[in-house]
Amino acid sequence: xxxxxxxxxxxxxxxxxxxxxxxxxxxxxxxxxxxxxxxxxxxxxxxxxxxxxxxxxxxxxxxxxxxxxxxxxxxxxxxxxxxxxxxxxxxxxxxxxxxxxxxxxxxxxxxxxxxxxxxxxxxxxxxxxxxxxxxxxxxxxxxxxxxxxxxxxxxxxxxxxxxxxxxxxxxxxxxxxxxxxxxxxxxxxxxxxxxxxxxxxxxxxxxxxxxxxxxxxxxxxxxxxxxxxxxxxxxxxxxxxxxxxxxxxxxxxxxxxxxxxxxxxxxxxxxxxxxxxxxxxxxxxxxxxxxxxxxxxxxxxxxxxxxxxxxxxxxxxxxxxxxxxxxxxxxxxxxxxxxxxxxxxxxxxxxxxxxxxxxxxxxxxxxxxxxxxxxxxxxxxxxxxxxxxx
Length: 390
Description:
Layout lengths: L2 H19 L3 H9 L4 H14 L12 E2 L7 E2 L6 H15 L3 E6 L16 E3 L2 E2 H16 L3 E7 L4 H11 L4 E7 L3 E2 L17 E2 L6 H8 L1 H7 L4 E6 L9 H9 L4 E7 L8 E5 L2 E5 L15 E10 L12 E7 L2 E7 L11 E5 L15 H17 L5
Parallel strand pairs: 2-17, 3-6, 3-10, 6-7, 11-17
Antiparallel strand pairs: 1-12, 4-5, 8-9, 10-14, 11-14, 12-13, 15-16
Helix pairs in contact: 1-2, 4-9
């Protein structure tokens, strides 16, 4: 589509949004730019208005069972013959230009004093995004290959991270952005949430936007056309989840198009976990499993790191829109969100069991400053062992 026609279409949608939702033209333009799905949004909030908040809306139905340890695929320990064989397989794929990295980087650093989460410091002078870029730079140098990095941004983080992509791209690490969608928070009655000044409350509707963002930005098509075959996807704030040739090899050694990393969980930890639903192994978030139907769960948790065959993202998957309750301006609000882990419901999936701690640790998520303080010694040790820091 010619650029002028595309701009006209965006402007027309913005005018429509401004009139329909009684919002400012600035917000309406942002909604149009970030592909607000007004039809889907209106249908979901109409259902909310009719039925109210019902947590059972998020529940899965069907026969549930937890996998046994034997039904997971353990990443072999460092130094083992099996690990070396997987690393050799993955290294060849990286050298051949078949592997790229996607960082889920749309979040804001609300618990870190504001700004963009990817740009918050994980160690003095070292931001979350810097850890990932250094990791790719190391891998690219080791394997003698260019490795593309795609930052999935939000309307909030796109300006800053687009500048990072321009500034830090090199011949070995090519960085670009792929903005996700944008939506509006609503009240439990289905009406738009408005602040004290009458303004609406925009948000980014979850990392389930991954496929949309990659396709729409052109990043996925460019990756595939240049020979790319596999994407390693991870949260920007999980510093343990670095590109590992052995993990790539583990994905390649199986027959499934998707590999999700899971790790042993501590008592009381709540999050997504692998389950068989009607004998299909997939990641289910905790809020999707009703207490009365909860099987004995294997003590592992989803890390939200995955490796996927890129061609599986060229067409949309029917990901569920979940009802998520939040509090904004002291008021209860609802967000409709999709989660990337639900890709496992749409294709055969390998559940890879990885360590969270130690030098091989791949799960060091940081949600707030207190957690960062607790994890810093482990993070520093892992990054030093991987030659990401001195």
